[in-house]
Amino acid sequence: MEKLAYALILASCKLRPYFQAHKIEVRTSFPLRQVLHKPKASGRIMEWVVELGQFDIEYKPRTTIKGQALADFIREFPPTFEVEGMECVPEPQPPIAIPENCSPWWNLYVDGAVNGNGAGAGIVLVSPEGHKLQSSIHFDFKAINNDGEYEALIAGLKLALEMKVENMNVYSDSMLVVWHIRGGFQARGPCTDLYMRYAQELIGKFKEIKLEQIPRSENADADALAKLGIQRDAHMLGVIPLKIQYQPSIPKIEVVDVEVEESNFWTTPFQEYIANGTLPTYKDEARKLRYKAAQYVIYDGVLYKRGFNRPLLRCVTGIRCEYIIREVHEGICGNHSGVPPSLTKFSVKATTGLPSTKTLMPSPRPVTAAKDLIGKLPKGKGGVKYVVVEVDYFTKWAEVGAGSFRRDNYDPENNEVNHRLYLDLIEEVRDTAQLRLAAYQQTTRKYFDKKVRARPLKMGNLVLRKMMPNMRVPAHGAIGAKWEGPYIIKTVLWEGTYHLTDMDGRLMSRAWNAQHLKRYY
After folding, report:
1. Which of 241, 306, 501, 512 gives 20 to 30 Å between its CA and that of 197?
2. So what's the pLDDT on residue 129?
3. What is the mean pLDDT of residues 166-180?
């Protein structure tokens, strides 16, 4: 299996532009996907999983050639061979005798049409002798194109049942309806599913039916009847009967509001991708999910994350997650739980009197804290005079050559364990950094926006228009004019969009945005 995974890695390296631009299907009869996502993957297998996670790869079983395909090929192209100069061919088969009591075949052509005037259907039933039974239907209810096609098919099947037809060829120009009935397409929507089930129920009442799709040009008679049915004009139809249908053939769907407990958590996308290979619709989200999913595995139906310390970290959600957090901060472990040193932050406090003591949660490793008092300072906001500074290490104050607590108590093994623990929390650190960056950008934008004074353009103002690349004269080069005008603002379509006229009053061909205009004085 490692050789197969290594071959896939080599293919991704040599064909990287194709792997990055397209969705890749890996056809194999080996459980390659299960091997790459197994919980005990380690070493180079784990590295390959991370490297392949950036591509859109889908693993599918290799299809087999059915034996019937070979039999059909031999039947269509019988073998010929020569024996001592003579060409031998298989003996011709005698014609198959058709029993006299065999039911004849009828032909049914159906078509539905929907436009702004309404909906209608056309039906043409042709007997084995060539006689045509034509019918036109007007639907006196709201319908879409697919509903009209299904209603036409259902009405045609009902007409054939009334004529005691047993064997029939059904022709329709709707590819969707034909492949719904055949099972090639999946019905989407409750109404479409009901139409499909009802049509299949009617088809089951016949002895044999063949449903085929034909071009619209070959279904011209049924199409013309459907369009005449929309107009609801019996005089144009002549002897052809016009039927008015007031209700759909399927029962009306009643929508009931049901309260469903929310079950989509942050772990749901990872579980669906690892178990079924389901990816989000958007390409960026799908790529991010594939990259992160390499660190997760499902073991006994539970989602785990591979830690850098090698144990599997169980992922919890919902009520269980709330219970754990509550127990850590408020329960029996509330006063004894340690926090990583990265969570013991540098603190600066301003007080009005004597310095107050800051309470720190115990850390899993020794932490040396230094406290200092700065002041007396000029009175600040709230009458504060002193500043208490608290730092958790003396490292910055150590002299060259002198020992320190950090150096004297350094343990390589414990340091490596803590380093791997921080790597497990790297995603949380990145999320926190992104939130801080967004908050800083919003604060900066708000500060500078306070100094901006809006000067909107008004009707009658003179402005200059920016010269677009297709408007410039190539011969002028870099010294060519970048603004032209002046122009007069004639109308304000909405804020930031204007209609312009030149100094002679001629209106410009289109509206212009404020970012391409500037005031002319």
Report:
1. 241
2. 87
3. 89
- pLDDT for 311-326, tens place per residue? 678 888 877 777 777 7
> Could you tell me if 166 and 210 are in contact, meaning their C-beta atoms sit under 8 angstroms apart?
no
Cα–Cα distance, 241 to 243 (Å, whole number): 6
pLDDT, greater one: 235 or 224:
224
Name which of 57, 3, 48, 56 is nearest 294 in CA terms.
Answer: 48
What is the token pair recorded at 359? 């309470």
With residues binned 3-state (H G I as helix, E B as strand, rest as coil), the percentages for the chain, rounded to 5, are: 35, 20, 40
Q: Is the pLDDT of residue 437 over 90?
A: yes
User: At residue 404, does pLDDT exceed 50?
Assistant: yes
Three-class SS state of 175: helix
Quick one: three-class SS letters along 460-516?
Answer: CCEEEEECCHHHCCHHHHHHCCCEEEEEEEEEEEECCEEEEECCCCCECCCCEEHHH
CA distances from residue 159 to 56, 123, 136 in whole angstroms, order as listed? 51, 9, 12
Left if phi > 0, otherwise alpha if psi is -120 to 50, otherwise beta: which for 502? beta
Tell me the torsion sign for CA atoms 324, 330, 333, 336: positive
Tens of pLDDT, residue by residue over 412-433, are 888 888 888 788 788 888 888 9
Structure tokens at 161: 């049942």
Domains and CATH numbers, the chain: 2-61 (no CATH), 105-245 (3.30.420.10), 268-329 (no CATH), 462-519 (2.30.30)
Determine contact, residues 192/151, Cβ cutoff 8 Å: no
For residue 191, give the nearest of 226, 244, 148, 152 by alpha carbon. Answer: 148
Average predicted confidence (pLDDT) for the chain: 76
Q: Tell me which of 32 and 382 has the higher pLDDT.
A: 32
Between CA 387 and CA 372 the distance in angstroms is 8
Q: Using CA atoms in the order 420, 421, 427, 432, what is the torsion angle rounded to 10 degrees? A: -130
